[in-house]
Design brief:
This protein is mainly alpha-helical and 92 residues long. The chain has a domain at 4-51. 49% of the residues lie in helices and 0% in strands. Helix 1 (4-26) runs antiparallel to helix 2 (30-51). It starts with a helix and ends in a 41-residue tail after the last helix. Residues 72-92 have a biased composition (Low complexity). Residues 57-92 are annotated as: Disordered. InterPro entries: DUF8015.
Length: 92
Amino acid sequence: MTGYYDYVLGLIPAALIGVTAVLNLVGLSLTAALPGGALVAGGVVAHAMFVKAPVAGEGSARSDQPVSGSVGRSTAPGRGRSAGRSRTGGAD
């Protein structure tokens, strides 16, 4: 299913190329038409970021708590990369 942001991703290059081409066909030089296309594409991006900003739904909300208790701990003590080395970063 395509959503709003899928359309935005397709509209950004379409606006940049399409508006630039139309302005070029109307009679503006390419160097004058390109900023017009970029302005429209930038407006699409700004709308997607600030007007209709993405928000986390209830199902995808991040939690600061780890999923399992073993996150960040080695499974076998003494077998990690720092085995036998000082944790201070200095010479042993």
